[in-house]
């Protein structure tokens, strides 16, 4: 077993169980992708809270693992070849954990890449656009006199919801009957858009019946319910 103490991040967040995968995160839409994935796969892990209120993500210890200063990040003591591996970027972590566990990513090559493309759809579209709606509707942006930025991001979020709506027509999940990392990547963001961000009416969410039904199915999964609360907020 690798000695995780050689990794600078463990000086701030010591590993109580160094044989387990270490998760450094916060239950945000990006953070819960990985905690949900870990709960779904059953991989043994230890969760560490990265407290934004304390600027934990800006500390040298955290930056030693993720120089971009964003959550989530992981440290796997049993990476490829039995060597420890640190990873950041939630989409990359989802794919890594799927391949490590052999779960939630189709084995068929064509379906595998089709799944991955939907993860990239979330990374490049859903996350950035929904996040901007949150900024301009709930946070500091709501004080801006110029409403054109908000209108732009609301319109783009509606368009993306429309893409999701079309894809989910006649499907339970993004990959038909197979629940995958594509679904996991998006559940937290859609939940946040209509919940924490309070933008349900703003984006006309109730017009997207397929998306709404998909979200309900996802949120009903026990592993999703657990993952949405990991790590516990202070």
Automatic annotation (TrEMBL):
Gene3D superfamilies: 1.20.1050.10, Glutaredoxin (3.40.30.10). Residues 108-234 form the GST C-terminal domain. CDD domains: GST_C_Ure2p_like, GST_N_Ure2p_like. Residues 18-105 form the GST N-terminal domain. InterPro entries: Glutathione-S-Trfase_C-like, Glutathione-S-Trfase_C_sf, Glutathione_S-Trfase, Glutathione_S-Trfase_N, GST_C, Thioredoxin-like_sf. It holds the Pfam family GST_C. Belongs to the GST superfamily. This is Glutathione S-transferase N-terminal domain-containing protein. It comes from Bradyrhizobium sediminis. The lineage of its organism: Bacteria, Pseudomonadati, Pseudomonadota, Alphaproteobacteria, Hyphomicrobiales.
